[in-house]
Amino acid sequence: MWLELRFPIRGKHEFVEELGIKEARIRLTRSRSISRLLRIGRNRDLLPHLETHLKVFGDLAQIAPELISGRRSVKRRIVPHGPEERLALVLILAILPQTLPRKRALCVLSLIDLALPAFVGPSGGTESDQRREREGHSRGNCTVSPVASSTRLGDTEIQPTPPLGPCAFVRIPPIIRFPVKLPMPFMIHFVRRSIGKIASILQKCFKRAALKLYPMRAHSLMFETVLYLRHLFQFLEVHKRLPIRPNTLFNDFLFQLKASSELGSPLRTFITDKELAKIYVERKLGAGTTSATLCVLRTPEEVETYLPATYPVVIKPTHSCGRIVLVFSESDYHKAQTQIKDWLNEDYFLGGFEKNYAKLEKKIIVEKYIDDTFAIEGSVHCRSGEPKIISLIDRKTKERQSFDTNKSALGVSLGFPLKEFEPKDWGFLNSLLKSSRILSGEFSYIRVDFYTDGERVLFGELTNLPAGGNGLFSPAGGEKKFSEVFFNSWQK
After folding, report:
1. pLDDT band at 489, cuts 50/70/90?
2. Are residues 169 and 47 in the same domain?
3. Counting Cβ atoms within 10 Å, is residue 210 exposed (0-12), middle (13-18) or buried (19+)?
4. Residue 165 and residue 37 share a domain
């Protein structure tokens, strides 16, 4: 990302007093770089080297807070082929004048251009590449006469720096005492909000592009690239970070699945259909392990003429998610008919672009209501056929808690506020774990949804991407604890 800056300087002995962002845009390096990034590897993976590039950006992003704080050393970081690729990164560390009480507020602008490449030394300041600087002077590339400079911080003047050529960077003094206390929490909040807003704009742009390309049946590589960028910026908008740790953080792991071709595989598409998912479960576990299906409606006319024989019933689309109607009487059904018919016109794939929802048949399933004796609903997060984490919800009070397979509470909740509770009886656990292993055996990840009365277990849906792969944890920071259990137990 390239931020173009314009600012006035009041005098030659004063530091920058005003700083404004003129424009924010994505800067593509050159066509050769794009062709290297946007290609399909021999294993048919899209963007095969993207993880490496994201790792570099993740390392570089760590420089900013360390330069702001100035309380610890910054490790050297370098992109060795920066001159060839013209990869540039500007780290802007600014304190807005309006936020400080003094008239002459300090603004700090630190620029690191990797085109040299530049270094960040242990002192926290930038260091020029001395070898390249000497080569530039020896070849006569330096055309601007050296200048000396000095700065003033409030009422304190810093001694002038030695004359520098245009090939060198100004060395930031290792220790600078500021006349006022810098509002660090505000700065961090400002940077995070800026990242979120820019990512939000970009993901909406790529979503609009995907919506235009989808009905045109555009070339698959073009469409897949646009989808990937939309998912990437949506992740950045929600989590304020790049998904570069798929082996240590749960949401990064789900992003890898969401962006891969696996999500659109025939098996995952099959179990996404709620009618077919029940068929899959009963093939694996036997009849009677899911709630009874009363009817499947495929047209608006069928919705008009159908009337449930018993009540209550649960009605939901088989090709969507999060849509459900509980019908307790004939009048309830007539009131819900308009909404139910609207579901038949909905393409859920165009909402979140989850590949497993693409081109599903549009149907309405009517199921028998699972009675309240099954007081607990829950889900089992499984990785490569092994249950990792069990999330439980009290259907009446909506209290919720997550546990490991040893029944230890984690104190976290995904997607909803945490309301801690313990089930009265764990008699269902062994059969639940056994059935979950059978159902998840063919998937790198799957969430098995179920209901239990403490002994018996009825299975509901099989979920590919909880919360669309962008769920937030409660409390804040709960993802770390959740991820530790999800990944570490798998390694044992």
Report:
1. low
2. yes
3. buried
4. yes
Quote the domain boundaries for residue 335.
292-369
Question: To 10 degrees, what angle do helices 184-213 and 220-239 make?
Answer: 160
Q: Are residues 213 and 229 in the same domain?
A: yes
Percent of the chain whose pLDDT exceeds 90: 52
Same domain assignment for residues 172 and 137: yes
**DSSP letter (8 states) at residue 35:** H
pLDDT number for residue 283: 96
Asked whether the predicted pLDDT for residue 281 surpasses 60, the reply is: yes
Residue with tokens 């409390």: 475
Number of domains present in the structure of the chain:
4
- Measuring CA to CA, how many Å separate 490 from each of 386, 401, 429? 8, 21, 19
343 and 432 share one domain: no
Question: Of 182, 214, 233, which residue is a domain's last?
Answer: 182
Residues facing residue 204 across a β-bridge: none
Model pLDDT, residue 332: 95
Q: List the CATH number of the domain containing 305.
A: 3.30.1490
226, 244, 262 - which closes a domain: 244
Determine the pLDDT at residue 262: 95
Structure tokens at 135: 């080569």
Tell me: do 396 and 477 sit in the same domain: yes
279 domain residue, yes or no: no
The amino acid at 324: I
- 26 and 169 belong to one structural domain: yes
Taking the C-alpha atoms of residue 11 and residue 104, their distance in angstroms, rounded to an integer, is 13
Query: Smallest Cα–Cα separation from 117: which of 144, 71, 86, 145?
Result: 86
pLDDT, averaged across the chain: 74
Q: Kindly state the tokens that stand for 314.
A: 């649960």
User: Do both 82 and 105 map to the same domain?
Assistant: yes
State pLDDT tens for residues 190-241: 677 788 889 999 999 999 999 998 888 666 888 999 999 999 999 999 999 9
Kindly give, in sequence order, each residue whose CB lies less than 8 Å from that of residue 26, ignoring residues fewer than 6 positions away: 1, 2, 202
b/e code 448-481 from CB counts within 10 Å (16+ = b) = bbbbbbeeebbbbbbbbbbebbbbebbeeebbee
Whole-model pTM: value is 0.64
d(CA 296, CA 364): 6
Q: Mean pLDDT across the stretch 440-454?
A: 96
Q: Which residue has the higher pLDDT, 196 or 401?
A: 401
Scan for tokens 């009363």, then name that residue.
294
Residue 53: the pLDDT is: 53
pLDDT band of residue 104 (cuts 50, 70, 90) is: very low
Nearest C-alpha neighbor of 79 from the set 58, 101, 103: 58
The H-assigned helical ranges of 309-428 are 330-343, 349-352
CATH number of the domain residue 484 falls in: 3.30.470
**What CA–CA distances, in Å, run from 122 to 63, 126, 173, 333?**
11, 9, 12, 70
132 belongs to a structural domain = yes
Q: Max Cα separation, the chain?
A: 91
